[in-house]
Amino acid sequence: MLFDLGASIFSLFFLLAGAACESPKVRVVLTNDDGWAEANIRAQYTTLTEGGYEVVLSAPAQDQSGTGSLDLPPTPLLEPCEYNTCVIGSPATGYNASEPQLNYVNSFPVTSVKFGIQTLAPKFFSGSPPDIVVSGPNVGANTGISVLGSGTVGAACEAAKEDIPAIAFSGTAKTRHSYTELVAGDSSFIYSSLALSLIDILIATPKPFLPPNTILNVNFPNVTAQCASEGNFEFVLSRAFPTLIPGFDLNICNTNTLPTESSVVGNSDGCFASISVLDARTKLDAGKSAQTFVYSKLGPLLKCLS
Ligand SMILES: *[C@@H]1O[C@H](CO)[C@@H](O)[C@H](O)[C@H]1NC(C)=O
Ligand SMILES: *[C@@H]1O[C@H](CO)[C@@H](O)[C@H](O)[C@H]1NC(C)=O
């Protein structure tokens, strides 16, 4: 009898604890520069949604690779959307009628992310801003000098300037394809799962997730026979540009000069993904204090190059 009572008090406790722990979903605006129908961004949409996030996709109607921080008002379509996903004459912004979270913007990546943050997020997230902006994964790496021209990085920087923490993801595998061609084991799914694992760790920490005016620039190496599944990959803190100034970076892995992104993703001793901390206003490497902040959040995920 006593035991029974104890057991039911116990289950009541867990019921209440469970209810109290049920937190609202983390809200994501998802964008890119390769276009709204590219396989990588749709894999990311699916992976985040299945991972428990509330996601609104707002991305260019066409491939806008290399358009940096260009921003112009969207215009009606003078040609079909990429992969024939909308017809000529479609409105300047539009969405998938059976899945209205999927939105195109017929302009640049920065214009698309602004539309996502300023117009779509209030509508889909009942007036709240997104908790985080995810840009990519880009088709092809964005390491070093290429961050300056990348629309994927440009969109993330715009979000950070609007006070939304943002991460740009890029994958070395250059398999440009439509979301309708996604297959199991696709590099798009490997990249989006890796992105999810990083985001999961970041959002489990208290806000703010990132220092103000700062983005993370994440690059994944190619998907090959050696780097074929999520478990093969490891993350390394990096910098975009080489530095000659000793002591600019935080001191980890027995050095105060972080490895460059290209040396991390190009390292053939493993499957290493680079994470750089960039200043959203200059797109150059952020300093030691921002790196230290990021290290305090992502430390458990980070490895040293041996
Ligand atoms: C729109 O959503 C439906 C249902 O998920 C899907 O079958 C279709 O391929 C999508 N089209 C585009 C262009 O997103
Ligand atoms: C990635 O790896 C595949 C398979 O090994 C190879 O065919 C492709 O050329 C590589 N791509 C890049 C950008 O290195």
Automatic annotation (TrEMBL):
InterPro entries: SurE (IPR030048), SurE-like_Pase/nucleotidase (IPR002828), SurE-like_sf (IPR036523)
Domain of life assignment: Eukaryota
Gene Ontology molecular function, alphabetical: metal ion binding; nucleotidase activity
Keywords: Hydrolase, Metal-binding, Signal
Entry annotated with the keyword Hydrolase: yes
Leader sequence segment: 1-19
Domain Survival protein SurE-like phosphatase/nucleotidase: 28-226
Entry keyword Hydrolase: yes
Homology family: Belongs to the SurE nucleotidase family.
Protein name listed in UniProt: Sure-like protein
